[in-house]
Specification:
This is ABC transporter ATP-binding protein. With about 230 residues, the chain is α/β, with parallel strands linked by helices. The chain has helices spanning about 55-65, 105-115, 120-135, 150-160, 180-195, 210; strands at about 15-25, 30-40, 45-50, 70-75, 90-95, 170, 200-205, 215-220, 225-230. It binds adenosine-5'-triphosphate.
Length: about 230
């Protein structure tokens, strides 16, 4: 596994899952997406969650980020004192599509989460500009989303996630709609930015070439988790 520059994990658990299961639906229609998964995410970890379609990557990522609740078992966030989503700016989320607001320019899109978290306007704009610099797209600040390529739009989505300086970055197939060159660039950006921020990074991907850029790799198979590297 590649160890790109940055801070190494310290042995402090950021997220702990104990015998976590997640079932969707009920009765005969019940679908067990996760079977008694136990794992620990350490501060500063950079973990790829791999596995085929339907193996449970998104379900696991959502539980770790606090977006979903288990149907059995326990998820704990010792460093956050409860669900991190209750603390605005602590979790940066990136999804397959950039989902930028079409009427706002790039700078406004990146500043928006900070404004929604009641940060002062000046601070939100300053942080948004810094995140665009970090993502190496400062020159796009005044563009509208419709004026961006797919790769540029996804870098804006990454900048939006980075702007509040989150402690946990959760990215779900963030490169699924990009060609290999742009996909690798976005993954490398996430890895570098996580190192610079001292943030923990979890990245769900079905692509082993993306997973190789991170330090640890968890492989999902039919709702169970195996660590394939450490
Ligand atoms: N809301 C839901 N209702 C019913 N079943 C669901 C729901 N969400 C996920 N599932 C099922 O749970 C299983 C795991 O889904 P999940 O999205 O976590 O897999 P994944 O590995 O992320 O897949 P992909 O790579 O295709 O995104 C799948 O069988 C899926 O159909």
């Amino acid at each position: 596994m590649t160890h790109l520059a940055g801070r190494q994990p310290v042995e402090t658990p950021l997220v702990e899952l104990r015998q976590v299961a997640r079932t969707f639906g009920r009765g005969r229609a019940a679908m067990v997406a996760l079977h008694e998964v136990g794992c620990t995410v350490l501060q500063g970890d950079r973990i790829a969650i791999t596995g085929p379609s339907g193996s449970g990557k998104t379900t696991l990522l959502h539980l770790i980020a606090g977006l979903d609740k288990p149907t059995a078992g326990e998820v704990r966030w010792p460093e956050f004192g409860g669900n991190p989503l209750d603390h605005p700016g602590e979790v940066g989320l990136v999804f397959q599509g950039a989902s930028l607001l079409p009427a706002l320019d790039v700078l406004e899109n990146v500043a928006l989460p900070l404004l929604l978290a009641d940060r002062p306007y000046g601070e939100a704009v300053t942080r948004a500009r810094a995140a665009l610099e970090q993502a190496e797209i400062a020159e796009l600040a005044q563009r509208l989303p419709e004026e961006l390529s797919g790769g540029q739009a996804q870098r804006v989505a990454v900048a939006r996630a980075l702007a509040p300086a989150p402690r946990l970055i959760a990215a779900d197939e963030p490169t699924g709609r990009l060609d290999t060159r742009h996909a690798l660039a976005v993954v490398d950006l996430l890895v570098r930015a996580a190192g610079e921020l001292g943030a923990t990074l979890l990245l769900a991907t079905h692509d082993p070439r993306m997973a190789e850029r991170l330090d640890r790799c968890w492989e999902m198979r039919d709702g169970t988790l195996n660590e394939v590297t450490a």
